């Protein structure tokens, strides 16, 4: 539609000006007096125009919009609910908060970033203030004969590191996976020193704030945790690394020592297996470990399709590790737990076969739209899922929603725990406020 033409301003009535009865000088009408009404009109027009422009600029400025126009939270907008419909997710998934620095969750938050997902780096820069710890998945400590070496520096993104240093908000602790053969590493204390020296050297040179160390699952795979002496040596090695890191101060923050966060799998049941990381293990090393990244996800698998991280399992894992029901406040060491939150989902075959695939945000959105999904809320697990059919197979998709994440944040708060997010950048959690 063509824009309407503005009406022309009415012409000034010059005859009315000519008929002025004001006195004249020297028998002639004063030009200044004759034009005074026009001057007043012009002056008023300029003033009104200036005020209009000023008001328009004031109301349109970003700072004023943020200050005067309330930004409703997802709770206030009614998006955190069990009866969510797929169209809401499709419409809301790209929304991001105007306030990118305020933290609604006050406990520590660890976010993992992987080199195969570049979006994670962007999210970390854009929302740095919302995280306390950032862990890029870069390194493996490997062995070749008696030689230990750190593989992964080729993954390091120095430009990204420099951007983060400008904000000085979140600590950067790259993940280091111990892939060295455990018998060679754990039984020889000279290897302990070599391993810690390699780690400390990398922290100094690249100015890290510490590391996230992962080894327990690999040690369980090798079977070394079944032997009491090997288990004791494994825990002593972790303490050795922690003390070595604590002996150095962060280059970015000279008043703070380098940190060690240790990755631990969640117990599968209340009856601890020999390879499970249990409460005695936690208490033995808690004084020299700054945090524990608890992997409370991947509960279900191809042979037992279901929720990714049932809420009852989360609570039972915390209760087992911390040894309290948290009725009288957070138990000891609860503040060191980073409760694992999955930002991915699972697509299971439930009838007609077996199988599972991990899905990320774009996959989830595609499946929602393609199948016009009817989401169901499972009260027991506190997760949303939907069922669809494809190639004569019935499949079930579990993926985190605002409701499921909100419930888990409440659980972490009730225990006094933090969060560990695997991994940022792959999610599409809609209406993020």
From TrEMBL:
Protein's UniProt keywords contain Membrane: yes
Transmembrane segments: 38-59
Keyword terms: Lysosome, Membrane, Secreted, Signal, Transmembrane, Transmembrane helix
GO CC term, one of those recorded: endomembrane system
Biased composition (Polar residues): 21-30
Main localization of the protein described in the UniProt heading: other
Keyword Membrane: yes
GH18 domain boundaries: 107-433
GO biological process assignments: carbohydrate metabolic process
Region listing for Disordered, in residue ranges: 1-30
Compartments (UniProt record): Lysosome; Secreted
Name listed for the protein in its UniProt record: Chitinase domain-containing protein 1
